[in-house]
Design goal:
Two copies of one chain form a homodimer. Chain A is of the alpha/beta class. Chain A is about 45% helix and about 15% strand. Chain A has 15 helices and 13 strands. In chain A, the strands form three sheets. In chain A, strands 1-2-3-7-8-9-10-11 form an eight-stranded parallel sheet. A three-stranded antiparallel sheet of chain A has the order 4-5-6. A two-stranded antiparallel ribbon of chain A has the order 12-13. In chain A, helix 6 packs across helix 7, helix 10 (about 225-230) runs antiparallel to helix 15 and helix 14 (about 300-325) packs antiparallel against helix 15. At the A-B interface, helix 1, helix 13 and helix 14 of A face helix 1, helix 13 and helix 14 of B.
Chain lengths: ~350, ~350
């Protein structure tokens, strides 16, 4: 899922998002609720109408940003009080608030409020966060039923925490599975832990999530990480990586990333990736993109965002085809080997 | 003509340029020759191939930027020596150089090298600049013939100078008309003189340019200026105004410009201009655009560039229709009255 934090996938119009085959995008509840506000967005046609995107939208609950961006937060049993990182205003997010905001936004997939413990975290503190997250998830589920959110075709996904404690992860996954959500996220990964530990946590959680429901790791990852998580049974991903680095001139390719500001691309007539069927690769050379970045032209970020997003979407499309063909295992290992090989 | 100074109409992909009906765009010889260099562009398919634009391109000669941007310039009879504003390198542009560069770029319409005197300027200095410009124009014309540039279907436009001296303007226009160029620009306007003086100079030049050839005022203007110059017989315009102010949140409308950062647009559900058929007005509200600008999102500049350029293209399309219908005079006066009326 391309990430549209503030009501726009940065640097690209929905025309180009459609063109690269984006099926669903992500919006950030925390940011949109602070600015411009969820009631305003509701009154202007929901997030779909507001940002001119007619495909599905998943929104997070805002909880993660409360823990990572805001100051002076206070976690209570009924939610979390915090100060806005924009203007310092004191705000509160509980299950009722996050479900209300996501209903205002018109999310197709709403995430429950959870408490994401830092890494590393003591076992007792982690257990407490898991209990609280379970209570909040149950409450979010109830609100989604009572308010008609679920009945009107919207979905709610739960988030299984547990940090590095396998038994807590198993417990959390099992308890949430009993609540019959539409999908399940592995939470508390990519919060500072080393990559092997991150993959270990995904491996420790995924088997305990329901077989027939989508599994989602939030905020991840690099192309090899995505393939490794698919191998562990994960179905959905979102990450700012392809869009953020695009604006700095970093291009993803099957042979690893390229810094297009490099002098060696000065006269390179090739597209970023030969044969990749997106607007940027069909029409522009590496030399042109380099020129745009060297000249400080916004269009460089736009064109490379289109390419990078398409590269990720194409990668998961390939993975899907290989799973269906039955040779995902050797294919993904070969793909990662080529990508990571020193050039 | 939308302006594409450095090989991109800032902030928009050619997809959106096509969509708003852009028929021709402008490229800047001075900038493109310094970075990335005209040979490089030639080797990568000319400016059309390089920037992915398959419509016509007009390029200026680079002379204006030599006079306005570079330091330590020395005007000689065979051209002008100057220092690059990027790295201080000493460079030279004469008729041979500017025609060679524009041939490398693959310009559909090349402009001759001219000397644009400042405003105000003494009569003697102006007369000298006119003589030199005429010699350079003749030399550019010869080079375009000898090199096959004209024979291969490319056009060359001359530029009539003369500053505030009507007789010098008449002389310049007449002498250039005798050389049978494909089109003619009124040069030396919008170089600091007040608007009435600018219009007076256009009025003093246009009648002496050939009837059946396009007339072009370079680097102009606001919507009312464009209409007033059309009334004076001008056919072609280029200006960074619609694109530059778009990136700061200024939107053109028939009721004058709007600053979309203004609080009063916070919840305004209307498009920038009701009923205007461009991507931005069809899909997005003023409130959404305001949100993008307040949140510092690049997409704001992109969407407003699309609107502003389309607003200008639509304006000249309307003017064309009114000329054909025979009521351009009263129509353009009413249009300007509405646009300039205090709100």
């Amino acid at each position: 899922m391309p990430v549209g934090t503030q009501g726009t996938v940065k640097a690209v119009t929905p025309v180009h998002l459609r063109d690269i085959g984006a099926q669903i995008i992500l919006g950030n509840t925390y940011h949109l609720n602070l600015r411009p506000g969820s009631e305003l967005i509701r009154d202007l046609g929901g997030l779909h109408g507001f940002m001119g995107w007619d495909g599905p939208i998943l929104t997070d609950s805002g909880g993660f940003q409360v823990f990572s961006l805001s100051k002076l937060r206070e976690i209570r049993d009924d939610g979390v009080a915090f100060q806005s990182h924009l203007d310092g205003a004191t705000l509160f997010l509980g299950p009722k608030e996050v479900m209300g905001i996501q209903a205002n936004l018109g999310s197709d997939i709403a995430m429950v409020l959870d408490e994401c413990p830092p890494w590393p975290v003591e076992r007792d503190a982690c257990a407490l966060a898991c209990e609280r997250s379970l209570r909040w998830a149950r409450r979010c589920r109830e609100i989604a039923s009572e308010s008609g959110f679920l009945a009107s075709g919207h979905l709610v996904f739960a988030i299984a925490q547990g940090s590095t404690y396998d038994d807590l992860r198993r417990e959390a996954a099992g308890a949430l599975a009993d609540l019959d959500f539409s999908g399940y996220a592995v939470g508390g990964v990519s919060v500072g832990e080393p990559e092997p530990e991150m993959l270990r946590q995904v491996a420790a959680t995924a088997p305990f999530l329901p077989e027939g429901k989508p599994r989602y790791t939030m905020g991840l990852g690099t192309p090899p990480q995505i393939l490794r998580m698919i191998a562990l049974g994960v179905d959905m991903f979102d990450c700012v990586l392809p869009t953020r680095v695009a604006r700095n001139g970093l291009a993803f390719t099957p042979d690893g990333p390229l810094n297009l500001r490099n002098e060696k691309f000065r006269a390179d007539p090739r597209p970023v990736v030969e044969g990749l069927d997106n607007y940027t690769c069909r029409n522009f050379s590496r030399a042109y993109l380099r020129h745009l970045f060297m000249a400080g032209e916004m269009l460089g970020g736009t064109l490379l965002t289109i390419h990078n997003l398409h590269f990720f979407l194409d990668l998961v499309a390939q993975a899907r085809a290989r799973i269906e063909a039955g040779d995902f295992g050797p294919w993904h290992q070969a793909w990662i080997r080529r990508y990571e090989e020193p050039k």
